[in-house]
């Protein structure tokens, strides 16, 4: 099986912002100790993207877990002999205490 190597290929992302936004972002980058406005923008957007993806994936997992849980409750199989015997033994032990 062939494994893919990570690509180091670069891509360009251009955007237009107001002068006020640029000055504001540059100030934040400076205060935050980033090397450049580009580093600030890329790292900040990357972190926000990770957060959004994690939240969405968690929501999907939680929804799927809920469906599995409620499906197991509402469509559970009948108890087998071993489970019935164990429940009977447990009730006997509890009632004798």
Secondary-structure class: mainly alpha
Total number of strands: 0
Task: Characterize the biggest β-sheet.
Answer: none
Total count of helical runs of at least 4 residues: 3
Q: How many separate domains?
A: 1
Q: Over the alpha carbons, how many angstroms does the gyration radius reach?
A: 28 Å
Overall pLDDT:
90
Low-pLDDT stretches are: none
Order of helices and strands: HHH
Helix content: 55-70%
> Judging from the principal axes of the Cα atoms, what is the shape?
elongated
- Beta fraction: under 5%
Distance between the termini: 62 Å
Helix-strand blueprint:
Elements: H1 19-32, H2 37-74, H3 81-95
Gist of the model:
This protein is mainly α and 97 residues long. The protein has helices at 19-32, 37-74, 81-95.
How would you describe this protein?
The chain is built from 3 helices and no strands. It is mostly helical and 97 residues long. It has one domain. The chain is elongated, with a radius of gyration of 28 Å. It starts with 18 loop residues before the first helix and ends with a helix.
What structural keywords apply?
97 residues; mainly alpha
């Amino acid at each position: 099986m062939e494994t893919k190597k990570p690509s180091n290929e670069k891509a360009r992302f251009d955007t237009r912002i107001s002068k006020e936004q640029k000055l504001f972002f540059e100030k934040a980058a400076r205060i935050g100790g980033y090397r450049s406005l580009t580093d600030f923008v890329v790292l900040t957007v990357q972190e926000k993207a990770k957060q959004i993806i994690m939240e969405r994936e968690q929501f999907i997992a939680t929804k799927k877990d809920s469906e599995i849980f409620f499906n197991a409750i509402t469509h559970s199989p009948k108890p087998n002999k071993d489970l019935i015997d164990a429940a009977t033994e447990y009730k006997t032990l509890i009632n004798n205490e």
